[in-house]
Inverse folding.
């Protein structure tokens, strides 16, 4: 589950769009083995009970198939499907409450194996240097038990751990280096850990804005970090920040600070342009710009997660966090919504297969 949305919302007793909507009864089944031509949406599922799911949507947006893993394998993924990571033709589906990673062929969704030992509140997966890496919170209130699990991709086992600071979350790969954002679990943090995968040693710990919630690499190989800032309920509210890091030297190139009560999130990129959400709107910034955008690209939205690809923006709506959500697709040349499709409960990840 998103660490700053529904998890925090449950703790704080508060919960922090279209032409057609297809479900399985309305759409023909996608033939087994044809999932390479479409979009995968990971759905967290109900918090504390039930199972998360994965929805398949064809590239032309005409076919939707829900509960993909269960239909292919006859079993459930586990509670809170947090994310999906990839290594070649394998997909690693992370269920954090169940402390489980399920491995499937990403094109057929047939199960290849699972990892149930050596995980403690796993969050996100990435692969580098023929090895898998998974961020783990451990106890979200304990600042001493957080780590990155080292995954053997041949036998699907945890073969070691890299202890890190509180709240490891998003993870990206640049060559043989991985970058981990420390959002802070149920608290707040402001670190990026840099790990050399040839030695599994920590090279750097970089301080950025408070609560770094998303990482992307631009077309030049620079790392961009979007930090939401401490929320107001902490009684130590801080502004969001956007940070650009040179990955050759692992040094900060520039930092842009938002207004004191602005808390941006959901940073994504098509390589050249950056997109993020703030105050019910989507903003666009070129990776060569020297200032934050003066106004939004379009407004009237509140996404749970979003992604961009091939001139389109994809944004999900978790609705009431208990019933089926939706994915809306926008044409970025016109900013118009071109389709809205039904997903599972709490659609938290969008992946292009």
């Amino acid at each position: 589950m998103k660490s700053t949305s529904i998890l925090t919302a449950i703790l704080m007793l508060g919960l922090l769009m279209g032409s057609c909507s297809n479900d399985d009864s309305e759409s023909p089944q996608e033939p087994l083995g044809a999932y390479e031509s479409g979009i995968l949406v990971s759905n967290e599922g109900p918090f504390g009970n039930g199972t998360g799911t994965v929805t398949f949507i064809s590239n032309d947006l005409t076919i939707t198939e829900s509960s993909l893993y269960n239909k292919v394998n006859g079993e459930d993924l586990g509670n809170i499907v947090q994310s999906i990571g990839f290594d070649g033709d394998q997909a690693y589906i992370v269920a954090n409450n169940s402390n489980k990673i399920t491995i499937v062929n990403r094109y057929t969704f047939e199960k290849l194996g699972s990892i149930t030992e050596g995980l403690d509140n796993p969050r996100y997966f990435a692969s580098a240097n023929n090895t898998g890496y998974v961020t783990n919170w451990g106890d979200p209130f304990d600042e001493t038990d957080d780590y990155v699990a080292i995954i053997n991709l041949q036998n699907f086992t945890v073969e070691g751990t890299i202890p890190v600071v509180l709240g490891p979350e998003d993870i990206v790969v640049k060559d043989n280096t991985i970058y981990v954002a420390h959002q802070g679990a149920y608290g707040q943090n402001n670190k990026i850990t840099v790990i050399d995968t040839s030695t599994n040693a920590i090279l750097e710990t970089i301080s950025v804005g408070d609560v770094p919630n998303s990482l992307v690499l631009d077309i030049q190989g620079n790392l961009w970090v979007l930090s939401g800032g401490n929320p107001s309920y902490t009684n130590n509210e801080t502004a969001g920040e956007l940070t650009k890091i040179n990955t050759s030297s692992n040094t900060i190139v520039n930092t842009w600070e938002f207004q004191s009560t602005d808390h941006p999130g959901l940073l994504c990129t098509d390589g050249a342009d950056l997109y993020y959400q703030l105050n019910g709107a989507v903003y666009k910034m070129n990776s060569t710009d020297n200032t934050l955008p003066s106004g939004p690209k379009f407004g009237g939205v509140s996404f749970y997660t979003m992604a961009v690809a091939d001139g389109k923006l994809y944004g999900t709506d978790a609705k009431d966090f208990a019933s089926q959500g939706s994915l809306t697709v926008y044409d970025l040349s016109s900013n118009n919504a071109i389709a809205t499709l039904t997903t599972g409960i709490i659609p938290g990840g969008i992946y292009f297969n």
About this structure: The chain has two helices and 28 strands. Residues 6-11 form the longest helix (6 residues). The CA atoms of residues 140 and 186 lie 6 Å apart. The longest strand covers residues 336-345.
